[in-house]
Amino acid sequence: MREPRGQPAASFEDFSFTYSGTDSPALEGVTFSIHPGELALVAGSSGGGKSTLLRAMIGLVPQMYPGELVGRALVAGADPARTPVREMARHVGYVFQDPENQIFASTVEEDVAFGLEVRGIPREEIVRRVEEVLGRLGLSELRGRPVHELSDGQKQLVALAGVLALDPRILVLDEPTSMLDPHNAREMLGLVRGLVDSSDICAVVVEHRLGFSMPLADELLVLHGGRLAARGPPREVMERVELRAFGISPPIPGPRHPVPDPPQSSRVALELDSVHYAYPEGTEALAGVSMEVREGELVAVVGHNGSGKTTLVRHLNGLLRPSSGSVRVFGRDTRRADVADLARLVGVVFQNPDHQIFEETVEREAMFAPLAMGFAPEDARRAAAAAMERVGISHLSLRNPVSLSGGERKRVAVASVLSYGPRILVLDEPTVGQDARNRELLRGLIEDIIYSGRTVIVVTHDLDFIWSLDPRTIVMRSGRILADARLSRVLSDGVLMESAHLVPPWLPSSIPEEESAQRVNGPAR
Ligand SMILES: Nc1ncnc2c1ncn2[C@@H]1O[C@H](COP(=O)(O)OP(=O)(O)OP(=O)(O)O)[C@@H](O)[C@H]1O
Ligand SMILES: [Mg+2]
């Protein structure tokens, strides 16, 4: 049963919502509608109400998250506040920000089939649909792999596949490309656009990476402080309002101030010599990685989903040890060094913050490592306070990390490592869920650490984030280093960019000449 085109697929009228136990509304007087065949992009600062809006579309707000609701919503012909979420989910396909919240079964294939089985779809039909959606998302080769053994980007694609297999009328996607390499991010959004064009579904997408999503969207909704601050065709909104004021990084390059090379006299901080690593079930994730990183150096690691970036990072603090080859941290071979000793030197902030947050308050989390390393309680408290201040979470110090947004939890994880001052800081995808202000905060932090003579390794798909620093960039592909050069050099090498799944992060019309020349004219692969 589909509505005729022309009727909105979802509409909100003067909609306000205040979470129980809070004073200020998370959404206030929001009015908008979306029609079949439309793709709406939702952007705005952290805490602006984006996730609340998405939750309200499927009824999680107020059914799972109680609070005071005023106004009206109609989604796929039903009132999401009063229709059981399970019913809403028949029409609304919701993809969470953290794909780990959406893993239902052990293998990729079973996971994607799960929702169809619950609905009692005949077996042959399930097989056909799963096949099709895996093919579309380039996941066919991974079909038999256990989901928990995939890279985070691969998990994100599987979560989307599970939702697409259900043929929803309304797609609701919370940062669906946050862990995808630029090529996959563009393909994925292109796929969503294609679906919206060819059937009468609509999509509501929260995105920070506007360079890929803006050209594909019909509408841009800017949420700020719970209110709809601007709304309209994306280009028009961008011309009309100063996006930065609303916590949005516009997809155009800003000024550049490259970090300097480390001084010749600086010590070698990390030394990797033909590192090979295979996971216990056999996947060869690193296939001969050699590199040297000095004190005071900033190194970005980029490359396609599953290229081995996170596996590489897990080697730097001795969490994984090479199957063959060696990793040395300030001369200590990680095969022989004590893990606690390595942790003092190398602080790793993992891709998924939930893998390293255990304490019940933000402050205790930030104090944990300093205490474990023998700081006196007062010093640990002071170090934690400084770290929380640095990443803009001081106001959250007494909150339970479980109650925070994904972007906030990520900053808690950064503070928990920053607090003990490791000589090498490793950040795996630090910008997931961060608005423009927090991105600038993180970038400033990286610069300060570099200028203080310490080392930073940042693994990222977000080239926009590192662009202004023009760091030394290691490009990974299939467990090997494909290139090692300043980011500006990488961006100007069309062949390299393509083979490494990289895409400049800007709107096509605003790509600087040095960066676009080769891409447009360069030889095809
Ligand atoms: N725990 C694990 N067990 C088995 N295989 C794994 C495990 N973690 C990752 N892999 C596999 O190792 C390869 C490299 O994964 P890794 O997580 O290092 O990639 P990545 O470059 O960080 O990817 P992404 O950009 O998606 O985060 C992939 O083929 C992945 O499926
Ligand atoms: Mg990774």
Structure keywords:
Rossmann fold; 6-stranded mixed sheet; 525 residues; alpha/beta; binds magnesium ion; 19 strands; globular
Explain this structure.
This protein has 525 residues and is of the alpha/beta class. It folds into three domains: 1-91 and 169-251, Rossmann fold (3-Layer(aba) Sandwich), CATH 3.40.50.300; 99-167, no CATH class; 268-521, Rossmann fold (3-Layer(aba) Sandwich), CATH 3.40.50.300. The chain has 19 helices and 19 strands. It has helices spanning 50-58, 60-63, 85-88, 108-118, 123-136, 152-164, 182-198, 210-213, 234-240, 309-316, 339-345, 362-372, 377-390, 406-418, 436-451, 463-467, 487-491, 494-499, 513-521, and strands at 10-19, 27-34, 39-44, 67-75, 92-95, 170-174, 202-206, 219-224, 227-232, 268-278, 284-294, 298-303, 324-329, 332-333, 346-349, 424-428, 455-459, 472-477, 480-486. Strands 5-6-7-3-8-9 form a six-stranded mixed beta sheet, with helices on both faces. β8 (219-224) and β9 (227-232) form a beta hairpin. α4 packs across α5 (123-136), α4 (108-118) runs parallel beside α6 (152-164) and α12 (362-372) runs parallel beside α14 (406-418). The protein starts with 9 loop residues before the first strand and ends with a helix. Mean pLDDT is 93; it is low at 517-525. Adenosine-5'-triphosphate (ATP) is lined by residues 149-154, 179, 181, 279, 281, 283, 285, 303, 305-311, 351. Adenosine-5'-triphosphate (ATP) binds at residues 149-154, 179, 181, 279, 281, 283, 285, 303, 305-311, 351. Belongs to the ABC transporter superfamily. One of its GO terms (cellular component) is ATP-binding cassette (ABC) transporter complex. It comes from Conexivisphaera calida. Probably part of an ABC transporter complex. Responsible for energy coupling to the transport system. Residues 10-250, 270-503 form the ABC transporter domain.
